[in-house]
Design a protein that fits this description.
The chain is built from 1 helix and 10 strands. By secondary structure, it is mainly beta. It has one domain: Immunoglobulin-like (Sandwich), CATH 2.60.40. A hairpin with a 2-residue loop joins strand 5 and strand 6. The longest helix is centred in the first third of the chain and has 14 residues. The two termini are 27 Å apart. The structure holds zinc ion (ZN).
Length: 159
């Protein structure tokens, strides 16, 4: 409960009181930077596209505090219409950031592969990259934190 409260406080500070009361079992935690939170283990990770269109991944502990990169390994593959592209990543502060920008436009899939260390099992996350702003949460659609799963308003939740 403490964690949830802290998260609500942080989110409220950054985004205003946009968090919806939501009692569904699959709660979507908004990425602290405005990106998409990936439910990786043992740490959460946030996929966030910077304003310069470079992709980034940052890890968070249970209290949603950013944690430094230690042994984690990340691969980002963009499935653009022109073909699959693996982005080269570099460490910038506590994040992995792509050396190049994402392809023009949006509407393509980005696959983020996370390994906690070189020996651990890869965890894959698929994000449908859409940049239009959601009217409900004011976040880019790829990082939307609304629970639209039941209405099928979003295509990014096929598990
Ligand atoms: Zn939304």
């Amino acid at each position: 409960m403490k964690h949830i409260l802290k998260l609500i406080v942080i989110t409220t500070l950054i985004f205003g009181p946009a968090i919806a009361a939501d009692d569904h079992n699959h709660k979507i935690i908004p990425g602290p930077q405005g990106g998409k939170l990936l439910e990786s283990e043992p740490q959460h990770a946030e996929f966030f596209v910077l304003s310069n269109k470079k992709a980034s991944v940052t890890f968070y502990d249970d209290a949603m505090k950013p944690v430094a990169i230690k042994s984690q390994e990340v691969k980002i593959t963009v499935e653009a219409k022109s073909g699959k592209v693996a982005l080269e990543l570099e460490k910038v502060g506590d994040s992995f950031v792509s050396k190049t920008t994402l392809p023009e436009g949006d509407g393509y899939r980005v696959v983020i592969q996370i390994k906690n260390d070189a020996a651990s099992k890869p965890q894959n996350f698929r994000v449908d990259y859409h940049t239009e702003i959601c009217k409900e949460c004011n976040r880019a659609e790829y990082a939307c934190s609304c629970d639209h799963g039941k209405e099928g308003a979003h295509t990014g939740h096929k598990h």
